[in-house]
Amino acid sequence: MSTARKTGVYMCRGCSIGDCIDVDALATMAGAGEGVVVTRTSPAFCLEDAGLIATDVAEQGLDAVVVGACSPRVNRQVLSFPPATVRRVNLREQVAWSHAPGEEATQELAADLLRMGLAAARHGMPPQPYTQDHERSVLVVGAGPAGLSAAYAAAEAGYAVTLVEKAPQAGGFLRRIHRGYPSRPDPLDALVDLDVAGMVGRVAAHPGVTLRTSTTVLEVAGQPGRFTVSLERVDGREEIVAGAVVFATGFEPVAAESFAAYGLGKFPNVITSVDMETLAREAEIRRPGDGRPVRRVAILACDGPGDGANLPYTGSVASMVALKQAMYVLERHPDAQVFIVYADMQTPGLDELYYRFVQERRGVFFLRGQVAAVDEGPDGDLTITARDSVLARDVSIEVDLAVLDVGMVATSAPQVSDPASLHLKYLQGEALPVHRAGYVDSNFLCFPFETSRTGVYAAGCVHRLQDVAASRRDGAAAALKAVQVVEKAAQGAAVHPRVGDLGFPQFFMQKCTACGRCTQECPFGALELDDLSHPVINTNRCRRCGICMGACPVQVISFPDYSVEMLSEMQKVVDLPEDDGQPRILVLACENDAYPALDMVGINRLRYPAQFRIVPVRCLGSVNSVVVADAVQRGFDGVALLGCRSGDDYQCHFIQGSGLLGVRMENVRETLGRMALDEDRVQVLETSIADAHRLPDVLAKLADDIAALGPNPMKGF
Amino acid sequence: MTDRATEVPVEGMIGASEEILVVGGGIAGITAALEAAEAGARVYLVEKNAHLGGRVAQLARYFPKLCPPNCGLEINFQRLRDNPDIRFFTMSEVEQVEGGRGRYRVKIRRQPRYVNDRCTSCGECVPVCPVERPDPFDYGMSTTKAISLSHEMAFPMKHAIDGATCLFEECGKCVAACPYDAIDLRAQPETIELEVGAIIVATGWQPYDARAITNLAFEHHPDVITNVMFERMLADNGPTQGRLLRPSDGSPVDSVAFVQCAGSRDRLHLAYCSGICCLASLKEAQLLLERNPQAQAHIFYIDLRTPGTYEAYAAKVLAQPNIRAVKGKVADILPDADGDRLVVVADDMVGGAMSRTSVDLVVLATGMVPSRDGEGVAGALGRDADGFLAEGGDGSGIFAAGCARAPVDVATAALDGTAAAMRALNTVRRALAST
Q1: Which helix H or strand E contains A518, and what residues bound it?
Q2: Residues A427-435: contacts with CB under 8 Å, at least 24 apart
Q3: A257 CA to chain B: closest CA distance, Å?
Q4: Using a CB-CB distance cutoff of 8 angstroms, which residues of chain A are in contact with residue B308?
Q5: How much is the pTM?
Q6: Are the CB atoms for A267 and A374 separated by under 8 Å?
Q7: What ipTM describes this predicted complex?
Q8: Nearest CB to A345: which of B1, B303, B386?
Q9: Which residues touch B250 (CB under 8 Å, ≥6 apart)?
Q10: At how many degrees (to 10) do helices B277-291 and B227-234 cross?
Q11: pLDDT (tens digit per residue) in B342-359
């Protein structure tokens, strides 16, 4: 890999770089580097002089360009010179803007960064993309509103859609709902005919959609671009191929047992909001016990402190359903009375306007409080005793019928008796990883579809708690992600977050010890094992994070432009003088959060000590222990790993990269300890992108702490 | 798209109708543009400010994870930088829209930045600028120069001049200081014409004007601020770098009253609920305690809107002993007779009487009002009585996303943007297929 690539080195003097360091000296130093055939300096390579680089690439056939200038986070299009690879050396934000000008330590810093950049450039091979799997088809599992919407949208986009529904008819839970509550711009004074038949009909009639009812998914194997799917139909099995999957299996109501205290299952006139939808189909609401039309109805939100099994699943939908069902009663029985008992009316946003509308209706009474008891009288009438929090006393209401507002549990949730599953034929397990409260949701607010199974997108109530209108939007959104992953697969490109990355891991199998660690640690299940227990990459599942590369104990995994060898070489070219009184600290900084934060230290013109040698990494999880151990053994006084938060509220965009690294570094520290090297030379520092103002102090303290350990005794060996 | 896309050459811009226009570069708009482009569309993104990111860039943290908005924005800006299929225009607004689904002719009015594509953001211009103005990024809680970068993560990373406060050629010091000839004080507004097949309107929101809620004393006391202002105070890159100090005298803030529904759910102000303010106040109370573990937070609310999985989040926050939630509408905010603090007078629906709580700082959780920008295209969609846009449909090929459509949280805004991207993409493809 270290063949001499024809390299041009371009040192910019602009943006105070030239005032801070001796750029000419650096250019001279670079000129002597392996493979370097041309060096230039300029007052601003981002302006007209970019043309000089382009000319050099064309005329001299440069393979690699090293630009010592601003951060790689800016001017990317301007400083792009295909077919040469470009390695940026950050001399602006991370040198000139954050360190004292004219000082020897600053010059040494710049020189080391340049040497590291040159070393990296020797390893930056252009990737050969994998483009073999890009079936323009989508499997949609579940034909409720989200699934129907996803199927229609994907079909409109020109994709062949197989829409699979386990029930004999499509429509999902919509088929059990009598009317919907109004969603703006619907007028508030009428309930909405959801027209399930029409919705289903339009989708089923679409030439791009194949609707399979009474069908379940037996297995999904393969990868985005080409999933192979086994379906079980009434008349036997069907095998199909799909480029992406939309998982829209919806919800089920919270289990009846959770409402025993309200008399559900014991008193015939205590029913759920689901049952109420069935009663509402008739011209009169007749209670189950004796069929008598209702005159007084209680609707209980079941959202008190004792409702832990229900409350997380009620959201704003249950409150709106309660209001709607009050209107069911009044529509049919204008002289009836409806008592809604609740702790907090969850009608955020524009739903508030419906709350106000119902509040103003004659016959609806709102009682804010907790239900203390539900008792049955001789005729099946009920007495609801509630602690009214406004009046601060107990209130008793006699009603014909009590309706319990039941929540909606995602069909993927662990408490569901037979969780919906794609039966993924993935080494890491067949279930889709679930998030809080059992939803197949993302840990990232900004990226609601960023989950750990590439190419599978959840929509509707299995994704998050939402109503019909929102589910339909969610379905369209999931369809977009489905189309997107296939279009990217056709280019051989990764999806979020390393969108467009064409490289993927390669394995030097001769040295593989079949330990399987890479397959375990890959957060995306991208690696399977073959018959020899060697890893096999499913390229389109891969997010190109490099966690596998970091995991491998024998370092057989690499990317064309990112490898253990590259990182090791970068660390090796840093000058480690034996004792100039200043420690040298290697910093491996996650490019998603820590590296931008370091840039922002410079943008704010704050300063930190010049002892840090910063290397951007894709994810801390991609850092192989050997890189750290070698750095310490060579004489670095310290190694700091700066990356995203791990744990429950993780920020790592590769799910567990920083967490895995934490564990690996504990092992490295232990190794150091056994070599009589101070463990504290290796530090993992959780760094957020918002930390720019804290970093100078953090880094200064780190430099002091490392200095206090004394120089690394391994220096000079 | 280049980083220097502030100056897209006019000739390249009359596109065929396979293009999608996204109006608004906040989280919903950026998401819509990125998701559409990464699925194969070609996109124009129009933003009225000098930099993209919208109002989320001004938040300290998101609930419930307390994660920094810049984290998602950084990834989005990288995707934007690397995608040649998205061309964006800052300082720009939609002036006029004509035509129909599949073939809209749009006129964009681009205001002068007075800084051209040669700007490297070296920042040499800032120290020499003599003009100080209230910084809109900090909601006026700090000042900035007439020429500035709106914040440290501003994208595109190019300075901009505020035409309202610059002295132009009377001064010209920035021109002399600029090493790259990047300043053009004579720049003029221009009109750019685009042809697009579908439009996504994601023009976002602005905070409800707290001055209108007279009993909440916003205009009378500097220590009564709004939630968006408190976010700036909490922000690491804010006017106080995250230290909590009373605006009146700079003394530390040890107690905060959060007034929920300040101007919301109120016939006199905003009839609707803004959906996220309860969660935002819970988050801000958490951040307050993170910065100052001895502080006290009092949240005065009517209904605590924390639906679904947010229930667990609310329970976690409210379990903290220093955070107290009081069910009751705030009637008055008065100066404390004894000293320089503030007294919050509120209904106490559980206790029964009126409560009086003495605090250092009052944060009014004001609601979100849909922005009236992009009126040229908003007219085609239709606004409701509160100014929110209709969702739009396949008939018009215009779709609303994010807080322009309804007051929603970040995840919903991102979902909206993605859904709108799919619908817009399909509109364009259908139109192309039928021509």
Answers
A1: helix A517-521
A2: A427/A519, A427/A525, A427/A527, A427/A528, A427/A529, A428/A519, A428/A520, A428/A522, A428/A525, A429/A525, A432/A247, A432/A456, A432/A458, A434/A410
A3: 20
A4: 312-316, 437, 464-465
A5: 0.96
A6: yes
A7: 0.96
A8: B303
A9: none
A10: 30
A11: 999 998 877 778 999 999
